[in-house]
Amino acid sequence: MSNASNKNSSWDCEIFCVILSEASEKSLTIAPINQKLLDSSPFPLAPWRGRAYRGWDVMRCTLLMIFGLIFLCSCEHKKQVVVTETRTLTARDASPKLFATSDERFRNAKPSPVRGETPNGWLALPATELRLLNYRFGESGAGEVWVSISSGTVIDNVNRWLNKQFGAAAIDGVGLKKLRTVSLAGDAGVWVEASGEYQPGMGAPAKSGFALAGVIAEINGKILTVKMVGPLGEVEQQHASLESFAKNLKWVD
Predict the structure, then answer these.
(1) CA distance readout (Å), 68 to 17, 53, 60, 74
(2) Are 143 and 230 spatial neighbours (Cβ–Cβ below 8 Å)?
(3) Are 247 and 127 in the same domain?
(4) pLDDT digits over 124-183, tens only?
(5) Are residues 66 and 140 in the same domain?
(6) 43 touches 5 (CB < 8 A)
(7) Which residues of 66-84 are buried (b: 16+ CB within 10 A; e: fewer)?
(8) Beta strands 181-184; 122-125: pairing state
């Protein structure tokens, strides 16, 4: 039984390869086949009598056909893709800037609720998280002006500037009423001045020979401040510009 099974299996393989040879348009090398094998077949094999195959030729032909199909698939014409969708550019589309300043790296993307005209001699800088408007001034490059919305009350911010940053005596309600009144964004504010050793805070070193000038007002339940800090002589030269700037600020929110 085993011999008969092996014989039939061998015959099936032989006939399959002969048919594959015919299917490949007789491109294989053929040789005389075992006549006894064909005579023992129960099927009509007249078309293949006297012809056989070589196993290596069959494998080689099969591989060639496979690679040929792969090549044809790779030569398929690629369809052109046309993109018609558009979108608005954002800050993410901007090219990165090397050696950017802290102001440029951490600027606030929200529009400022106040607007102002940049005075002559001031350099406008990008806004930051705490500075709605941000400027530099003076020949030293150390002068700063910024507009903020602060927490607390008017007197809290006055004493923070005078006492904590310049070491001056704190004032009370009576002293607050004695401060000069100036216009800030259409409302009444108080003018604050100080000079001496400036303590910027946040771990920054103290700066001698500095001065402060600024305006603080409560507007629509918010504490709006305009603060100028820099070398004493440069700040004194900018008093008139600062007062005019504060007066002409406008709320846009």
Answers:
(1) 20, 22, 12, 10
(2) yes
(3) yes
(4) 999 988 999 999 999 999 999 999 999 999 999 999 999 999 999 999 999 999 999 999
(5) no
(6) no
(7) eeeeeeeeeeeeeeeeeee
(8) unpaired
Provide the number of structural domains found in the chain.
2
Q: Are residues 214 and 106 in the same domain?
A: yes
Contacts of residue 129, defined as CB under 8 A and 6 or more positions apart, other chains included, come to 106, 107, 108
Regarding beta strands 207-219 and 122-125, do their DSSP bridges make them parallel or antiparallel, or are they unpaired? Answer: unpaired
- Does 215 lie in the same domain as 164? yes
Tokens of 245: 């700037």
What's the rounded mean pLDDT across residues 227-253?
95
Q: Are residues 121 and 227 in the same domain?
A: yes
Query: Using CA atoms, how far apart are residues 131 and 252, in angstroms rounded to an integer?
Result: 16
Does this model's pTM top 0.85? My answer is no
Which tokens is 92 given? 């993410």
Between β-strands 133-137 and 143-150, what pairing exists: parallel, antiparallel or unpaired?
Answer: antiparallel
Token pair listed for 180:
């000069």
The span from the CA of 251 to the CA of 253, in Å, is 6
Task: For residue 221, report the phi and psi dihedrals to the nearest 5 degrees.
Answer: 80, 5
